[in-house]
Amino acid sequence: MKLYRASSTLASICLAVVSVTGISALTFAPQVTAPAIAQEAGEPVTTTSKPNAIALAKHLRKTGAKFYSAYWCPHCHTQKQRFGKQAVSQLEVIECDRRGFKPQTQLCIAKKISGYPTWEIDGKFYPGTQSLENLAKLSKYRGDI
Which pTM does this prediction carry? Predict the structure, then answer.
């Protein structure tokens, strides 16, 4: 009888500690936040960048161009695929959805971004998916595309 009470008490204490600390008895994996889950839902960029796309992306960043995006937006994904994985890492991508990774929702609201993707180049806004050639023209890029 004493052993039953002791093990029952120990089990109760363990359950209390687990519920207070959030430790799972089934797994010790870290808890994933909603923004991280949302970001993972976005499509990864799978294309390989050409040297010209990387050079354009670096130029766009250097000149202060911004790419306003939402992780769930298929047109944003298409735009990123045009650049390729390596070039996208050079762009200044502004996540507008509050559930995305490192969101800047207030900036998007302040800039009155109403659709995705939207490019901001030299203080002017260009909504929609853009060709690399058009982005080069809009940003006065002088390299080859």
Answer: 0.72
